[in-house]
Amino acid sequence: MNSSMISIHEIATSVSEAIETRHSIREYLPDSVPDEILQKVFHKALRTPSWKNSQPWKIHIVSGEKRNQLSKELVKAAYESTPRPETNWPESYPSDAKKRMFDLGMKIYEMAGIERKDKEARNQFMLRNFEFFGAPTAVFITSKFDLNYYVGIDLGCFLQSVLLLAREEGLGTCAQAALSSFPDVVKNSLGLPTEEKVILGLSIGYPKPDSNLNRFHTPRESAEELIRFY
Questions:
Q1: Mean pLDDT of 162-174
Q2: Which domain of life is it from (predicted)?
């Protein structure tokens, strides 16, 4: 079967299929993910390479009632305060990247049935981050390392491993910087030490099959634009 025709609900049978069919899932079935599948995904992801084998990550997988309570606390924090992440969110982008980011936002709102000028609906959609978009499991990636360029690369490699391994199991994911917005809430809920920084999170579960949002794939620049052979 052509990989472009494979549904996000099917198991990816190769790395190429996982890469080509993976995209952010923002609506999930309520079905819980069996512990053995979550263990398989995250245990394999530990093989991710890192600078001098430093392995700068800790992984916290939250399901069930703990997930529900943490979601309530994060939503409450989002209503009552402004984000206070422990990492600096990027603020400056080249003009071409800004255009792609703006276009992405507009297309997602369109797929969600939200009018561009409907600020309240957009805010409610943003809050869905803290409800993990309905996914039964939330994951938080933390680190005790001093953050620098190479630690960032290592964490990005680990995240990519998780996203692709999840596709291999027929799972959907959404990587979320928003889940680092209120690190004190996460630390208090999970009993994490102060020095353990909450870097990012992701939602993971089974994609809702009849969702317009889940049919949306972000476009990519052409290979001719980005790749050069010498």
A1: 96
A2: Bacteria
